[in-house]
Amino acid sequence: MTGDRQRIEDALLAAVQTKDAYLNELARHLIVAGGKRLRPVLTLVAAQVAGGPALHGAVQGGIACELVQTGSLYHDDVIDESATRRGVETVNAKWGNLQAILAGDFLLARASEIAASLGAEVAGLLGNTIARLCEGEIEQLRHTYDVSRPEPSYFSSIEGKTASLFSTAARIGGIVAGLDRPVIDALTEYGRAYGMAFQIVDDVLDITATDEQLGKPAGHDMVEGVYTLPVLRTMSSGGVAADELRDLLGSPLNAVVCDKALSIVRAGSGVEQALSAAQAYVTLAVEACALLPAGAATDALRTTPQHLLDSL
């Protein structure tokens, strides 16, 4: 997989190369800052479940998904007024909101161009996914600072914002490899379940990890009024701690209040309950693998979801 990862990195950098040095710097900023490249890796592995090679089309499909992810981060950082991402300054903090928005648009445009080169089905799929990302973001924004946010809103939001792109990454791998439709559908469900587990774990880490581990301030979601599953479960658990947390939330937090809110969530059962929900999605992802051809790629897919929880 090391060689495939290098193919992904090379293709990403080539995709954002233009004649404008300034735009190149903006577009490359978060790419060169690093990242696990989970979505393009998923596309490559999905394309190989029937034993075939890692095709050029799978690399291109994977980086299209990664460019959508990166472009959406540029936009998210403007919305959240974030100062750091992946341990470096955000584009909006370094160059301004206008540049960040346009650079994010550029990355989405490049992703769409690449998807179109892979055929109408992939192009339509990626376009639909970008729409679902927006729907997930809107659902989240509807409930900003809402201490009564219902859990279905949370799950709907993360399915759009996160799981849809993992699902698409896996599906594109199956499409470009010409796999049978039942296998493509199983890969799609795998990506959705994996993406749901991934986002829940990420939301738990926003509560439990340090600033250094995150590359951004811990509790950032609460500060921005985004109440994720561990927070919602803490508030719904009842008792003095739940009431105290609810009283702290509902408006922007300063550093002292944020630390107090973090302490309450960390001490309660909300984190454990959220991880139980993540485990349920891990189980769904593993079950989807039963519908895939036997082989090394399927084995890798089967074992990967549990790593999300084991790494905590």
Automatic annotation (TrEMBL):
Q: Where are the transmembrane segments?
A: none
What cofactor is needed? Mg(2+)
CDD domains linked: Trans_IPPS_HT
Q: Pfam families recorded for this chain?
A: polyprenyl_synt
Q: Name one GO molecular function term.
A: metal ion binding
The UniProt entry, under InterPro entries, shows:
Isoprenoid_synthase_dom_sf, Polyprenyl_synt, Polyprenyl_synt_CS
* Gene3D superfamilies in the record: Farnesyl Diphosphate Synthase
State whether keyword Magnesium applies: yes
Keywords of the record, alphabetical order, are: Magnesium, Metal-binding, Transferase
User: Could you give a single Gene Ontology term from the biological process aspect?
Assistant: isoprenoid biosynthetic process
Report the sequence similarity comment from the record. Belongs to the FPP/GGPP synthase family.
- Which PANTHER family does the UniProt entry name for this protein? ALL TRANS-POLYPRENYL-DIPHOSPHATE SYNTHASE PDSS1, GERANYLGERANYL PYROPHOSPHATE SYNTHASE
Q: What is this protein called?
A: Unannotated protein
**Lineage, please?**
unclassified sequences, metagenomes, ecological metagenomes
